[in-house]
Design goal:
Helix content is 24%, strand content 31%. 31% of the residues are buried. The protein has a 9-stranded antiparallel β-sheet with strand order 2-3-9-11-10-6-7-4-8, covered by helices on one side. Strands 1-5 form a two-stranded parallel sheet. It starts with 9 loop residues before the first helix and ends in a 5-residue tail after the last strand. It has 214 residues and is an alpha+beta fold. Bound molecules: 2-acetamido-2-deoxy-beta-D-glucopyranose (NAG). 2-acetamido-2-deoxy-beta-D-glucopyranose binds next to loops.
Length: 214
């Protein structure tokens, strides 16, 4: 089963959610364009290693939704993404159309019983960080994440399927181990910056959270 963690094709989604031309225009203006993003979640690079880097993200509000599924079924992140997309495009208490901020992070936690937990989140744009509007969909929630320190490296190309993400996690984990830092592959973030229709200079990252697991 093909899973898409990379934000899918926005144009298609816009029609799926039944966005009006006005919503579309606001959204496009807000986001700059569908491919050139207006905003990226802020971070500092705190240490550069040979094959990976350490970054700090400040405490931020994210909009999230979660699901549980086996690896065979996958995260249904297309459906999850659609929920977050609706929130960003106006399905919120203030009917606000917000800018789409990259990246989208899919937190993967491997369950012992074969059932994984997936939490898909988008950063909320700076203008609404302090007071994000309430989601209308009950399965969508705002999460105030504490500061997050992560290890990551950026890879290009298409990283889409669950097995591709886990392979990249294993490679990054190998580099970390080389420096005496060890992580379990049972918990990581799969992070996408691009839409499927962007073909060059694609950016994908697996994140291991420094504090959460040691
Ligand atoms: C980056 O580090 C500087 C200096 O510590 C700090 O003032 C700033 O808020 C940090 N930026 C982010 C995005 O964490």
């Amino acid at each position: 089963m093909t899973r898409m963690c990379n934000m899918e094709t926005f144009a298609v989604l816009l029609f799926v959610v039944g966005a009006t031309a006005n919503t579309f225009r606001n959204f496009v203006n807000g986001a700059g364009s569908l491919i050139g993003y207006a905003e990226e979640a802020p971070y500092n690079i705190t240490k550069i290693h040979q094959n990976f880097e350490e970054r700090e993200y400040p405490a931020l509000n994210w909009v999230c939704t979660t699901t549980k599924a086996s690896s065979e079924v996958g995260s249904h992140d297309r459906a999850m993404f659609l929920k977050l997309f609706r929130y960003v495009t106006g399905q919120n208490s203030e009917r606000r159309v917000m800018a789409y901020v990259i990246p989208a992070t899919l937190e993967y936690t491997n369950g012992k019983n074969g059932i994984n937990t997936y939490v898909l989140c988008l950063f909320i744009e700076k203008a609404h960080q302090a007071h994000p509007p309430e989601p209308i969909d009950e399965s969508v929630f705002i999460e105030n994440r504490p500061p997050l320190t992560i290890y990551t490296r950026t890879v290009g190309g298409y990283v889409i399927s669950e097995s591709q993400w886990i392979d990249e996690g294993a490679r990054l984990s190998g580099y970390l181990q080389h420096e005496g830092i060890s992580f379990s592959l049972n918990h990581m973030y799969w992070v996408s910056y691009d839409f499927t229709f962007k073909f060059w200079n694609r950016r994908n990252e697996v994140w291991f959270a420094k504090e959460a697991e040691k």
